[in-house]
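Morning. Coffee machine broken again, so started the prediction first thing and wrote up yesterday's gels while waiting. Chain of 261 residues, entered below exactly as on the submission form.
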Amino acid sequence: MIPLCRRSLIISALFLFTASRWAIAPGLPVQAWIVWNVGQGQWVTWAKENHCLHFDMGGEMWPKQALKKICGSRQNQLFLTHGDWDHINKIKEALSVLPSLCLHSAPLHMLSPLKKTLINMIPVCHQLVHKVTRLYSPPPPSANPRQSTNANSTVFTAGQKMLVPGDSLKAQERIWSQQLDSISKVRWLIAGHHGSHTSTSDPLLRRLPKLKQVIVSARKEKYGHPHNQVKARLQKLKIPMLQTELWGNIFLMENSKLKSD
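Came back before lunch.
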């Protein structure tokens, strides 16, 4: 008999594969959270009727055709968790297919001149079009100038269902996961630091009672992510894990039965 957690993963994955085929079909509107298959990196999009909200824009690959089809004619806003290259290095390419792109949230830690130039290519947004919550904002760099960029990740939730922690580490998870009750409504978690053992801690997972899936945007063969320790934590709590490396672009449909209480 297949274990419960594995059965759940198989059912969810089959649904997501079907949903992704439906979502990019011509003439059909897309309202979903999309975790793009960018290799080792991060790019999550919340596609609404007239808008696309993007959380980071980085990775080894970029989904030009699907991105243009889904978001090319919509208003686009960008929220950056931090300034590591694998979270920002596709900004210039994205501007070529998303002419309406604006920046709503920039990294709060020190950036190199090259990174500043890249980020400054995007005009600043004038208003937020949908509900995005900044769960955690790192302290100013002067407070701890030697702190890593991962520790300085800004943490977001979209619609209180998707949790995007960037590369936030366990020490920061302990801070923001205990401060706000709103994370108890989260259904999907983007694994912190691409599934590294330094993130997605057991205390955080236990603060997410409605969590349905953890999604990893990484490459196991080349970088070793997701780490076996993270896999073990999820298996212990019977939380399915989806990997973009295996499933490609992952679509999480807002109104599907998979996401109902």
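Residues 109 and 142 are 9 Å apart (CA to CA). Going to sketch it on the whiteboard this afternoon.
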